[in-house]
Design goal:
Blueprint lengths: L6 H18 L3 E3 L1 H5 L8 E5 L2 E8 L9 H17 L18 E7 L5 H9 L3 E3 L10 E5 L5 E4 L18 E3 L2 H6 L3 E2 L2 H9 L17 H14 L2
Parallel strand pairs: 3-4, 4-5, 7-9
Antiparallel strand pairs: 1-2, 2-3, 6-7, 6-8
Length: 232
């Protein structure tokens, strides 16, 4: 764990890392845990691709503090609640993915391990477990195409950073440096964009979260290979 970070910051960084993996694999991601804080109801990430939806809980814990069965039970419960309410309690401005309830899966990512009873509960309820899943360095700057056609980049220090979903299909991407973002034609975001992004928590944005083109075979292949590598 990094020095000088609070437990909340350590957990936030792990959620962002797992979200990055999903987005790079072509999934849409809502960073619900970061946006809602203690009111996230155990759904750190809501990820969807086509008819598939993953309700993701992220635990950046050490092996000395294994995941207990109650954590898995809570994830199963909140996933069932999501299906029943069609995320009506989110109020984040994202569309409800058109998925059958059987396509909604509970997923637990953790740097640690599970107690034997927790693992048994997970197997019985078809919870996808990714244990010993270490945090790794990854590109954190988001290059984003806005609904108004602007190309902007956001650093983790930006107020609206976690409100923005990176969509590979529309040309969004992650990069390591601001110099790289500028070389790709993206401009640093303006502060008023942060206020605009914050409003998306309560209002819908027509084309902001919908792909504007059919995925090419190459894009689908790359996303599938990336997802296969990371178990998505």
């Amino acid at each position: 764990m990094e020095g000088q970070q609070t437990p909340a910051e350590v957990g936030r960084d792990y959620e962002r890392f797992i979200g990055y993996l999903y987005e790079t694999a072509g999934w849409n991601v809502v960073y619900r845990g970061i946006l809602r804080g203690m009111a996230d109801r155990g759904r750190d990430l809501v990820c969807w691709s086509g008819s598939k939806v993953h309700i993701v809980q992220c635990k950046r814990w050490s092996a000395a503090n294994p995941i207990k069965a109650e954590i898995v039970h809570d994830l199963i419960k909140t996933t069932a609640e999501y299906v029943a309410k069609k995320h009506s309690d989110d109020q984040l401005g994202f569309e409800w993915p058109e998925a059958a309830s059987k396509s909604v899966r509970a997923v637990l990512f953790t740097t640690g391990i599970l107690q034997s009873d927790a693992a048994a509960v997970a197997r019985l309820n078809r919870v996808i477990i990714r244990d010993r899943y270490a945090f790794k360095a990854y590109p954190k700057i988001k290059c984003h195409h806005t609904s108004l056609g602007k190309k902007v980049y956001l650093t983790p220090a930006c107020y609206s950073y976690d409100s923005i979903s990176v969509r590979s299909l529309r040309g969004d991407c992650y990069v390591y440096s601001e110099t790289e973002a500028l070389s790709l034609g993206f401009e640093k975001h303006e502060e008023n964009m942060a206020l605009f992004a914050a409003k998306k928590r309560t209002i819908r944005s027509g084309d902001e979260f919908k792909p504007d083109q059919t995925p090419s075979f190459l894009f689908r292949l790359k996303a599938w290979l990336f997802g296969l590598k990371h178990g998505l």
